[in-house]
Amino acid sequence: MPYLELDGNMVYFAGNQDKEGIPLLFCHGSGGGHHHWLYQLKAMPPPVKPLAFDLPGHGRSDNTPLDDVYMYRDWLKLFSQSFGLKNFILTGHSLGGAIAMAYALEHPEDLHGLILVGTGARLRVLPAFLEELKQGRVPETMIEYLYAPGASEELVNLGLREMKNTAPEVYLADLTACDNFDIRENLSQISLPTLIICGSEDSLTPVKYSQFLKENIPQSRLEIIEGAGHMAMLEQPDAVNRAIAKFIEEDLL
Ligand code: COA
Fold first, then answer.
1. CB environment 105-127: b (16+ within 10 A), e (fewer)
2. What's the gap in Å between 223 CA and the centre of ligand 1?
3. 3-class DSSP state of 33
4. Atom of ligand 1 nearest to the CA of 145
5. Is 125:178 a contact under the CB 8 Å cutoff?
């Protein structure tokens, strides 16, 4: 099993560990895990080597989740250093996108490029979600916001099962981190080639959040995935993979 020991805690990761190639590191969102990038891990061809991990307290990683984007950023710095990653492309979804932007602002010298999927410069959370979590329950209505109306029943059922198997404490920590995040004033300092991806039907981080990122991050391009919701990389993996491959080929190689 591929685990890395970090400060005495085990971190699970999956993907390509070849020495050669450009590392493409994927960071999942609230309550998620490396499996949210299943189709990207399978499909990214050399010279790119895709890698995904479980944040602390998520999936197969031990330890507890963090409730602050900047603490996750510092954890990610430790992870990338311990893994020996240099000049890598960092991809983040939702909360993972916030962590990726915070990382790009603090450690741009580590990165070759940035990919932001279904995220925003400010990630306020519906107070009803936080209230229910504080009472120890995962708000299952969240599922209605995660996928586009046309998403397959199988995918939605898998998402619901995952949600039921995730402790409310994990969502509470992650969504608290989202709720306190706001870097709208700092976006122009992101100095890396950046691809922004958003599903046209995303109702958790609507397209206007991605348009704002596009308008304020200097070297950025925006790809809207028609018909996809917040989980675009699972809902329409081929379209997301095409957008990533095109960005790497045209802006990074
Ligand atoms: N990028 C750009 N602009 C943003 C932004 C972002 N990431 N987040 C908020 N804004 C803007 C809004 O467009 C709005 O501008 P407007 O008044 O010109 O339309 C303004 O900031 C206020 O934003 P709003 O989201 O309406 O804040 P609010 O405090 O009134 O509402 C919520 C809070 C939670 C109701 C709302 O953000 C929401 O519905 N969120 C989506 C659901 C959710 O929980 N998402 C989880 C994210 S991980």
1. bebeebbbbbbbbbbbbebebee
2. 21
3. coil
4. 42
5. yes
Closest C-alpha residue for ligand 1 atom 21 = 122
pLDDT one digit per residue (tens) for the chain, 253 residues: 699 999 899 999 999 877 788 999 999 999 999 999 999 999 988 889 999 999 999 999 999 999 999 999 999 999 999 999 999 999 999 999 999 999 999 999 999 999 999 999 999 999 999 999 999 999 999 999 999 999 999 999 999 999 999 999 999 999 999 999 999 999 999 999 999 999 999 999 999 999 999 999 999 999 999 999 999 999 999 999 999 999 999 999 8
Q: Does residue 54 contact residue 80 with C-beta atoms inside 8 Å?
A: no
Atom of ligand 1 nearest to the CA of 121: 7
Domains of the chain, earliest start first: 3-252 (3.40.50.1820)
Report the separation in Å between the CA atom of 124 and the middle of ligand 1, taken as the mean of its atom positions: 6
CA distance 206 to 151: 17
Ligand 1 test: best mutation among 93, 101, 124, 130, most atoms within 8 Å of CB?
124
Q: Would you say the CB of residue 207 lies under 6 angstroms from ligand 1?
A: no
Q: How far apart are CA 175 and CA 194, in angstroms?
A: 24
Nearest CA to ligand 1 atom 8: 122
Q: How far is the CA of 4 from the centre of ligand 1 (A)?
A: 37
